[in-house]
Amino acid sequence: MERETHILVITYPLQGHINPMLQFSKRLASKGARVTLVTTSTIRNSMQALQGASSVNIEIISDGSEGDENLENLIATLDRFKVIVSQSLAEYIEKLDSSNYPPKFVVYDFVLPWALDVAKKYGLDGAPFFTQSCAVSVIYYHLKQGTIRLPIEGPTVSLPSLPKLTIDDISSFLSNPSSYPPLLNLALDLFSNFLEAKWLFFSSFMDLELEVVNWMASQQWPIKTIGPTIPSMYLDKRLENDKEYGLHLFKPDVDACIKWLDTKETHSVVYTSFGSLASLGEEQMQELTWGLKNSSCYFLWIVRETEQKKLPTNFLQETAGKGLVVSWCPQLEVLAHKAIGCFMTHCGWNSTLEALSLGVPMVAMPQWTDQLTNAKFIVDVWKVGVRIKLDERGIATKEEIELCIREVIGGERGKEMRGNSIRWKELAKEAMDEGGSSDKNIEDFVAKLVCS
Ligand code: UDP
Question: For all residues of the chain together, what is the average pLDDT?
C-alpha cells in the first residue's frame, strides 16, 4: 500500500484521550497509512516522560500555553482553547498542504467538534473519535435532542437500547445542571455537527455494546467501533514491534511496581487508581487507606504527586509490608500481571476497557461524568464487578470498601466475575484480531481512504 495517505489524528491534551487516540493511530499506521498525532502545547513539558511512538509522527500545535496549564483549568477554558487551537490547526494544515505529505483526512477528538469545520475549510473530510462509551454518547445525544430534560428527576430514565438508569448512573451535571457548566455545554455541543462527519469512531467494540451500536446503526449513523484501543502486544502478537505503551503525562515508576508485583501470589493484589484527573477529599483518602488495610490484601495504590499530601501521616507504618504507593504506573503492564486480583477503579472509560480486555474484575468507585454510567454497565450489564455504596455524606466508608474488595477478590461472586472477565477478554481480542469487527472497521476505513 502506498504511504502517502496522510491522516491527522487530533487529540485533546488529556491522558485519557491521548492513550486511545495514539493506539488507534498505531493501528492506522499498521494498515499502511501515514499518521500524525496532533496534540497541543499545554502538555509540552509533561510529555518529556513519553515513550517513543515509532510508527506515528507526533506534532504539537499551540493552545496558547507553554506546558504550565493546570488541566482542570483547561476544561474550564474550552472556549479559549477552541479559538486558539482552530487557528493553529488551520495554520498547520496549510503548512502540510504545501509539503510532500498533504493530509487526506482528519480524525478529531470528539470534544473538539469544531475541528470538522476547520477540516472542511481545506476540503478535507473528518470523523470524530469518541473516547467514551457508545452508551454514554447516546445519553448525551438524547440530551441534545431534548428527549432528556434537565434537571433529571424521577427514579429512572428509560432510553432506547439502554438499561433503566437511575440518577446515580448518569453524569452528575445532568441531575445537577449548575454543578459544572463547562461539561454540560460540552455534552450539548458534541452532537452539533456529527452528521456532517464521514464516520463516527468509537473506542469500544461490537460485542461489548451490541444493542447500543445496533441502535446507532438503525439511526443511519456512520458508526465504526475500533476498540479496545490496547497496544497489540497485550492482545495479539501481530505487531511485534509495538512494545511501548504510549505517551505518559506523568512519570511511571515501572521497576518499583513490577518488581513488587513479581513477589506476590497470583490474584492477591488490589490495584487501586483513580486515573489522571479525579481528586479524592481528605476524609475519603482516610477511609480508603483503612479500607485497603483492613481488607488484608496486598495493594498497589496510585496516588498522584499532587494528591499525596492527603495520605494519613501514619500511613506507611500502619500499612507496612501490605501496600505500595506510587505516583504513576504502567497501568496495562500492571493489569496484565498475574498478581492482580482486582482493580478498584474510578471507572474512567479507558481503565474500564483495559480491565475488561485484560480479564480483571473491578470494584467500581465512580467519581463524576461518564464514570457513573460505566459503573452501571460494569456491575449490571457486563457483570464483572461490584459498586461501592456511598453513605449519607457521599463517602465510601472503610467498612464498605473492605467488604467490596473481599467480595471480588475472595468470594463466590468474585469467582463468577473473574469468569465473566475472562470471557470479555476473549471477545476483546477477537474484535482486534485479523478479520475481527474492529480490525475490519479500521481496515475498511484506510482502504476507502486510499481509493478516494
Ligand atoms: N494510567 C496509567 N498509569 C496510572 C494510571 C492511569 O498509565 O498510574 C492510564 C490508564 O491506563 C488509562 C489512562 O491513564 O489509559 C486513564 O484514563 P481513564 O479514561 O481511565 O481515566 P481519566 O484519567 O481520563 O479520568
Answer: 91
The candidate with the shortest Cα–Cα distance to 175, out of 199, 143, 197, 205, is 143
Q: CB of 162 within 8 A of CB of 408?
A: no
Q: Which residues line the pocket of ligand 1, CB cutoff 6 A? A: 15-16, 19, 273, 275-278, 302, 328-332, 348-351, 354
Closest CA to 271 of 339, 331, 344, 364: 344
All 3 cell numbers of residue 125?
A: 473530510
Each residue's pLDDT tens digit, 425-448:
999 999 999 999 999 999 999 999
Judge if ipTM > 0.95: yes
- How far, in Å, are 15, 110, 122, 426 from residue 131 at the CA level? 11, 7, 25, 22
Active site includes 142? no
Tell me whether the omega of the peptide bond preceding residue 330 falls within 30 degrees of 0, making it cis: no
Is pLDDT at 49 greater than 50 in this prediction?
no
CA distance 134 to 81: 26
70 class by beta-carbon count within 10 Å (0-12 exposed, 13-18 middle, 19+ buried): exposed
Backbone angles phi, psi at 99, to 5 degrees: -105, -175
Residue 319: is it exposed, middle or buried by C-beta count within 10 angstroms (0-12/13-18/19+)?
buried
pTM tops 0.90: yes
Has 17 been annotated as catalytic?
Answer: yes
